[in-house]
Amino acid sequence: MSITLMKTILVVEDTPSEMKLISYYLQESGYSVINAISAKEALERILEKKPDIIITDVVMPEMSGFELCRNLKKHPETEKLPVIICTSKNQEIDRLWAMRQGANAYITKPFTREELLKVVQSIMTE
């Protein structure tokens, strides 16, 4: 008999309304959600809480979501941690850059609940 553990997702977003929406969609779908309003705070939370997935915005003060992703992929203890970039930047160059930084998926705002959950579930099954 297997026990399915609740997956924990860290949402890194500096816009309160976006944070609330993403967190709501995830919690409503049975995920445990941790929030961080900056990449710096996210790095602390990751070491402390060991989330299963990171969903990060790109444009944030101090450190961008791209830099956060690159930092995570450089360290052995976080290199396997899946990162979903969630941003309003919808140019192909942004998507390519995200993948070069090590992102596992890229979703653009505005997104639907279904789009977000589809991306999260696809990462969970990788």
Structure notes:
By secondary structure, this protein is of the alpha/beta class. It has one domain (8-124): 3-Layer(aba) Sandwich (Rossmann fold). The chain contains five helices and five strands; from the N terminus they run βαβαβαβαβα. The chain has helices at residues 16-28, 39-49, 65-74, 92-100, 113-124, and strands spanning 8-12, 32-36, 53-56, 83-87, 105-108. Strand 4, helix 4 and strand 5 (105-108) form a beta-alpha-beta unit. Helix 2 packs parallel to helix 3.
Intertermini distance: 22 Å
The CATH topology is what?
Rossmann fold
Which shape, going by the Cα principal axes? globular
CATH architecture: 3-Layer(aba) Sandwich
> What is the class in the CATH system?
Alpha Beta
Question: Count of DSSP E strands?
Answer: 5
Chain oligomer state = single chain
What gyration radius follows from the Cα positions, in whole Å?
A: 13 Å
Biggest sheet strand line-up: 2-1-3-4-5
Name the poorly predicted regions.
Answer: none
Count of discrete domains: 1
**How much helicity do the residues have?**
40-55%
**Biggest sheet record:** 5 strands, parallel
CATH superfamily: Response regulator
Our estimate of the beta-strand percent is: 15-25%
Q: Average pLDDT across residues? A: 94
